[in-house]
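Example record used in the benchmark description.
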Amino acid sequence: MSQVVAPLPEVAHQHAVFADGLPLDCGAVVVPLTVAFRTYGTLNAERSNAVLVCHALTGDQYLAEPHPVTGKPGWWESIVGPGKPLDTDRYFLVCANVLGGCMGSTGPRSEMTDAEGRGMGRPWGTDFPQVTIRDMVRAQKRLMDHLGIARWLAVIGGSMGGMQVLEWAATYPDAVLAAAPIACAAHHSAQNIAFHEVGRQAIHGDPDWMGGRYWEDGRIPARGLAVARMVAHITYLSEQALTRKFGRRLRGASALTFLEDVFEVESYLRHQGSTFVRRFDANSYLTITRAMDFFDLAAEHEGNLARAFAGTATRFFLASFSSDWLFPTEESRAVVRALNAAGARVSFVEIDSDKGHDAFLLEEPEFHAALGGFLRGAAEKVGAYGPVSP
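Model output (structure tokens):
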């Protein structure tokens, strides 16, 4: 990998700008607030068929279309479209780049502003204030109001997206008819924080990191960011998936060497790292991983997770995957127990899969059927399941 990699390309994203900004949990105010987003399908006349889809750590708003930077298919394209679980003939899907992201929403790549919102001629970089999952949800709420939607038919997401779903249900329960947090937890485990810290230290240790001001020389800490992606990607898979895909197969090397890829799994991880650095900003990676690490929904409610959902009328559907060791099934069950204690309506399924954490993004017919059925049931409850009103 070259030491110097071109900065991320500039892309014109669909967005909404809020001149009054957004107060953050840390006490800072981001002025103005920009939320980049994409929509799929048509909002019906009653505005009752809107579904918010929340993306994971390295995702973005390009849910079901070719990515404007990589050209790759949307990250959940397999279940979005006519006749699919997220049926665009029936639902109006909204997906927003999270606060702190690098695909158009306000984040470290955005121009730094003063308290009055005046531009200061340089990116925020490491001066960008620390954000929380709740801050991300508040930014999405501003977008919801901007779109004229009073209540989401459903809020859906996996991994960090699932954390956002839980925060939505706790912070704005009257705005969420149905919630589907997938392959997630109510707080980040010590092990997950540890993996994130390894990635952050790899970025900090890159010679091109330059104290987070790499943009001044038109560089990015490509090697450190690539290693961070490689470490994270290992946690998204399972031992069974790695064995099935790669085993101990070699790439034609005739002798042991440390100077080239020998095993196919090495080549795969290096490819994941090298492609990631061309679409993601290092300072955004640091910002968002910290937001995940600090997420603790019970702590927001005096240490009692059930209190987060007290009196809720929201319907819940949770799904986990048997080989997911990043967010194991027991963490989903803990959320289910808290929902039961709060008297909430909740259904739960553990999908038998050997694909690891990434299973929620891959072809899993049982999961797709369960999610589609849950969403259809919620839509039928409010009379929103049917052809979109002309």
